[in-house]
Structures are given as C-alpha cells and as structure tokens.
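May I ask for an example protein's residues together with how it folds?

___
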Amino acid sequence: MFDLETNPDNASRARCVGILLAAGRGRRYAGAAAGQDKLLALLPDGTPVLVAAVALLRAAVSHIVAITRPDNDRAAALLAQAGCDVVMADPGADGMGDSLATAVRHVMRTADHGIDACLVALGDMPWIRPDTCLRVAAASRQHAIVAPVWNGQRGHPVAFQRTIWPALAVLTGDVGARAVVARYGVTELAVDDAGVCADVDTPEDLMTAGRRVEPG
C-alpha cells in the first residue's frame, strides 16, 4: 500500500475537501412519486441515492461537508452516519447558490491550512466513478476551476481552488456557481464517464439512468 508521500491519489485527498449539495426539494421527483424524497430513494442495489453520492465523493477528498434542509431529518441522519459534517441550509434559502454559499462559508471557517481546493458534488448524482472524482481533484492543483466533460456536456463534480472560495461564499439564487465560472473561466477535463451528467429527476431515472452509465 502506498503512503501519503508516494501515492498521488492520497495527496489529492489530503488537500481537497468535499462539498455535497443535498438541500433541494426534488419537486419533479416528488410529484411523480407521491411526495417521496429522491435523495432517499433506493438504487437497484438497495443503497439510498444520497449515500451512494457520498461514497463516490469520499474517494477524492479528506472529508465531506454536506448541506441539507433543516426539515429533512432522515437525510441529515444518513449524512452523519456516513461521516459527513452536516450543515443546515437557511430555511429561507433560495436555491443552489444559497446552499453552496452556506457550505463554502462553513468550509472557510473550518478547513485546515493544508486544504487548497473543494470538490463540489450533487446529492442526486450517484453514478459518477470515484476515479473521475480523483482526476478532477488532481487537476485542481494546476487550474482554478475544473469540471469534467463527457460527450461534449459539462458535468459534476467541479473543483474550485481556495482562492475562488470568497466568490462562492456570496452566491445567491438558483443558478449555482455559473456566475463564478463565467468570471474566472473553467478548465474542462474530458472523461469517459457518463455519470458526470446523470442525475435523478424522476423515479424512472433510478433504473434507466443507471443502465445508461454502465461501462460498455
């Protein structure tokens, strides 16, 4: 087994913190599934979507800060059991921008000096390959913002160097980090991983999206 000094994967983990955004309400899924929460839905192997998203992100980071809604006790419990630092979104938060800003502010207060990037993933994207997360995290050593691209489509997770965090910390609204990416530019990393663009929007996605991202 390689140690931290000789294994570049371990070095990438040591310098990168994960941020998992899990504060959305998933209204489209809930409308088609009698109010069920898509993050708690089970994949074919019985793993909740949210837990699978945590597991793949953990391959590339030292620890994970996960943000969820204050009224979603079940999601908060699963995140805590998975070893995440759980942060509650403001009840009046208005979309992904607010959630990301809240999580980044927490990271800015708590991250060790050795952490120089964050890797932002979404709680409803359980099919990304762990090695893809590692590649994006490693690329952030040389580039301020890095995003994976599959088949011409930009996806997640997205890495942000520490110098970008203050801009993320003041985001609002439901457009995520688009304004920050537009201001600073993004390095696109080509990957052979359809999972970077596959999320859970409807109950059907639990089966069909999973089949689409299977290798081969």
Notes: The mean pLDDT is 88. The beta strands are 16-22, 64-68, 85-88, 117-122, 145-150, 153-154, 158-161, 187-190. The first strand starts at residue 16 and ends at 22. The chain has one domain: 15-204.
